[in-house]
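Internal ticket #5521
Category: modeling
Description: The requester needs a full-assembly model to guide mutagenesis choices. All entity lines are attached below as received. Residue total reported by intake: 223.
Assigned to: D.W.
Attached entities:
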Amino acid sequence: GIQVEQSPPDLILQEGANSTLRCNFSDSVNNLQWFHQNPWGQLINLFYIPSGTKQNGRLSATTVATERYSLLYISSSQTTDSGVYFCAGTTSGTYKYIFGTGTRLKVLA
Amino acid sequence: EAQVTQNPRYLITVTGKKLTVTCSQNMNHEYMSWYRQDPGLGLRQIYYSMNVEVTDKGDVPEGYKVSRKEKRNFPLILESPSPNQTSLYFCASSLVAGGAYEQYFGPGTRLTVT
């Protein structure tokens, strides 16, 4: 089946630093989304980004569907950015969702 | 407020005792889905539903049942829970119109089966 690999698996940043998280798909994926799971376990929508680039404050995301990857940029990181970041999408021709392996981010004050 | 709600949020039960976790959304979404999240395994889809009376298996459907009798509700049924179903469960919903499936998640239900 399709594999969704996220890198890096773990990341520690000093407050104020920038970072790039990557999501690679082994096959075509539709309806790509990025989520943040906060330390309390809530899954929060960050971006719905099947293609192109979007920005929301300090966060932005880019998906290059033809090359099967998506990037999430976090600028001027804050301690509240800590948690796990997931990408997810539907496998081509189905309505099944598959999640990436996640990137665990810790931002230090 | 647009939201997906799940009940209960926490549940401890014993092996074999049937239970139902409810999921409800107030956004008139056609698509609803259940996931489980386990350490080291990430989030895996259990079942999904494209609309009322239309359900299909995800990647890990064994030991679970679902029904979609109303558009807003999508309960998850464990008829004979076992300890390997101890997990964090999430319900999600999205619109289907236009082929865009932007999912919104409920707060999660932490289930422990002893």
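Resolution: model delivered.
Comment from assignee: Chain B touches chain A through 24 residues (CB under 8 Å).
Ticket closed.
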